Amino acid sequence: MRAQPTASHFVDGAYLEDEAGTPFDSIHSATGEVIARLHAATPAVIDKAMKAAARAQKEWAATPPAARARVLRKAADLIYANNQALSELEALDTAKPIQETLVADATSGAEALEWFSAQAASIAGEAVPLGTDFAYTVREPLGVCVGIGAWNYPTQIACWKAAPALACGNAMVFKPSELTPLSTLKIAEIFMEAGAPAGLFNVVQGMGEVGAALTTHPLTAKVSLTGSVPTGGKVYAAAASGMRHATMELGGKSPMIVFDDADIEDAVGGAMLGNFYSAGQICSNGTRVFVQAGLEERFLERLIERTKEIRLGDPMDPETQMGPLVSEAQREKVLGYIETGKREGATLAHGGGVPSGGLFDKGAFVEPTIFSDVTDEMTIAREEIFGPVLSLLTFETEEEAVERANATPFGLAAGVFTGDITRAHRVAGALEAGICWINAYNLTPVEAPFGGVKQSGFGRENGRAAMEFYSQLKTIHVGLAPVDSPY
Ligand code: NDP
């Protein structure tokens, strides 16, 4: 199962190796096999990537928007055409089930490129009449944007950042997580095949230090990070020191509120999607499921019944619905939280263990886990676990549910399930989150902005809003009258 890339990095339109960089392995966590060995970027590689991006950006910004749009559109088409191969690589890299990667990774990246290609051709400013004079505004690119990704959705994260960045006339240097270094190299190849200038989209590998070096590089105009809140704090502070632009897509501990008039099958389905998809490794997951007291028993019963049906197994098997976690370290972290949940008095209603036999003995698997009788103070209700662990809490009134849902430093996402249309909008309006789903969960179409509030970050990906975070406004005042100078 080797998936060794041609070289570790993709810089200035070609693969690049520098064996002086710290070596690291890419491991398929379903089997523990090493599938590739790469090297972290050295300062020379980082500098080469940044300089190539700066050069390409000038050429790209001078390219007519419709021509830029064609390149993005072609890249999208190439991703769609190569979805099978890209999804297999993503499944190897992340150990997410092929059933998921076929529909939620490369295709989601392609949708971003397709949608932002249409936006690229429609960037415009406004004319401002000023009596005799007038002014007009232009939306300019920022320059070289650095993208830093988490390991759960490497292709999607790279494309969600690159699509608006490139549409606005910027270039990008992207650093994937060291745990999932492979798939974004293929995206870099595809950009070249689509006709992008060499250096427009570069991939450099490495750990946090490489991300830190990119963030403070003199040529960096903007940093967009998808990662945890602690990393976000460091990257934001480093970006601020150079007055660089920043987008922070960070973690969450999102609430999902289920009222007793909700469609129970939909609510259970939403709770499962929002906790078990990608083995729970999704930033916007609704990991605090607040169920109205009268519904709790029936809800829990159906939740357990349906969770028992989830097929755990080999990510490369199309029948598998849940694979392992991304790494052994992540599994240890998740199992630690499960132990803490039990110790602090939550009821382990389902799962909580490690499956055994065959592949399960080799990979970083954890059973889908449900805790009931969870209280707001418990660690599992406060901290982001990033694994398949659902916490069920109960509430009596709407006011109480909203207050408790908002009692968290995070603010990425939220959900409300109810049959009462008025209450649905009232609760969605009151929840402190960047995105709130009504009778749905974890849907992130490219047309709608996505991002957090509070400590979950700022800036937006997707939707037209994303363009504002990859461009800056210039005002040009045109004097038409004689200069009125007192001197
Ligand atoms: P981390 O915060 O550990 O890492 C994110 C990225 O930042 C990695 O590429 C990492 O490198 C890099 N990095 C680490 N330190 C620094 C630094 N000082 N300067 C620059 N870059 C640095 O997150 P994870 O990879 O563990 O991903 C999980 C987290 O991501 C969760 O909290 C999750 O909620 C969040 N996330 C948020 C999403 C959103 O859209 N809001 C979506 C997906 C995930 P390396 O790890 O290779 O060392």
From TrEMBL:
The active site is at K161 (charge relay system), E249 (proton acceptor), E249, C283 (nucleophile), E461 (charge relay system). One of its GO terms (molecular function) is metal ion binding. This is Betaine aldehyde dehydrogenase. The modification Cysteine sulfenic acid (-SOH) is found at C283. InterPro entries: Ald_DH/histidinol_DH (IPR016161), Ald_DH_C (IPR016163), Ald_DH_CS_CYS (IPR016160), Ald_DH_CS_GLU (IPR029510), Ald_DH_N (IPR016162), Aldehyde_DH_dom (IPR015590), BADH (IPR011264). Pathway: Amine and polyamine biosynthesis; betaine biosynthesis via choline pathway; betaine from betaine aldehyde: step 1/1. Residues 17-476 form the Aldehyde dehydrogenase domain. Keywords: Metal-binding, NAD, NADP, Oxidation, Oxidoreductase, Potassium. Its EC number is 1.2.1.8. Belongs to the aldehyde dehydrogenase family. Binds 2 potassium ions per subunit. K(+) 2 binds at K454, G457. NAD(+) binds at G149, A150, W151, K175, P176, S177, E178, G251, C283, E384. It comes from the Bacteria. Involved in the biosynthesis of the osmoprotectant glycine betaine. Catalyzes the irreversible oxidation of betaine aldehyde to the corresponding acid. The keyword Oxidoreductase applies. It catalyses: betaine aldehyde + NADP(+) + H2O = glycine betaine + NADPH + 2 H(+); betaine aldehyde + NAD(+) + H2O = glycine betaine + NADH + 2 H(+). K(+) 1 binds at S26, I27, D93. Its cofactor is K(+). Dimer of dimers. The keyword Electron transport does not apply. GO terms for biological process: glycine betaine biosynthetic process from choline.
